Amino acid sequence: MHKALGLVAILLVGLVGGCGDKTPPQAPATSGGSDAGAKPKPSSATGNSANTSSKPTKSSSTAQRPAAEQQAINDVRKLNGKIQYADSAPDSPVIKVSFKGLRDIGGADLGCLKALPTIVELNLEIARNGPQDISLLTSLPKLKVLYLPNLPADQFATLAQLPALESLSVGIDKPSSSSSGQDFLRQALDGLSGSRTLKHLRITQGGSGIIGANKPKADSFASLPKITTLAFIDISPLQITDEAMADIGRCGNLETLILTNMNGKLISDKGIQSLSACNKLKVLSVKGVNDSILTAAAQLGSLVHFDSGTTVRVSDSLLVGLKRDNPRLTVTVRAPFTKWWDEIVATK
Predict the structure, then answer these.
(1) Could you tell me which CATH class the domain 120-346 is placed in?
(2) CA gyration radius for the chain?
(3) For a tag on the chain, would you pick the N or C end, based on fewer CB atoms within 10 A?
(4) Closest by alpha carbon to 162, among 99, 207, 117?
């Protein structure tokens, strides 16, 4: 009986084992088909592809400039111009170019600048025979700071078209062939009045001395208030009068004004009082002052600093009074005929 039961058990085990062998084995989770024995391919987030994406390739580290830009840089160097780049990268954009003090450079030479649209600051204060046509500057959309020599009056309208221009230093003392120096100034400022970005205006004087020898007409600055963004004006080479001061006083955003009172007589306290509407004016520099001018300046409510330059006709008692009565105002008086220009600062 026991032998019969043992034989049945052996038969049952054999049947169960045979059924299990007929079930096909499951494929490994990491491979399948004929690639089971091959090495797994790296995923897009791991392996060599990840290393490639995190490190610059050899070609990117040796990036080259466009041919036209490199040629323009070479042309500037041939003219002995100076170049400044944004940083030390091989393909860093050019941001500054200067031809200051160089001679005989004309508009044709400057044509290379069209291939450098990243220029932010440009100095064209050429010693002789500067450009008479500056239309090429309209191809510099990022130009913010510009230095120019004597410029024809009809070219100032081109300056007003520069979309980013904020600071302009320009000589305007050469009259055109058909007008006087005074008419030239009016025409130049009329053309510039279309600017909507200009904040700093500095008028320089070249070798002709036209404006230095003649006073501008009473209406020469009539268009100046139309440049509503002006915050800084330096017209110290010009002989400014009280009439001109009336127009300057209409520049509502003016913060700094630099003037020359020729022989201490052309600007009176009335001219200084014309600035009372300039509610943002903080710094006023007038070369050639007297007690009445300084007193009028002290009454400008927003003014915090007054500089008299080197021509002084002010009394010590007035300076003492300013120190006492105007706690916000600092007055700098440079006395002439001393070795280092002695300074008297009236402040409280």
Answers:
(1) alpha beta
(2) 38
(3) N
(4) 117
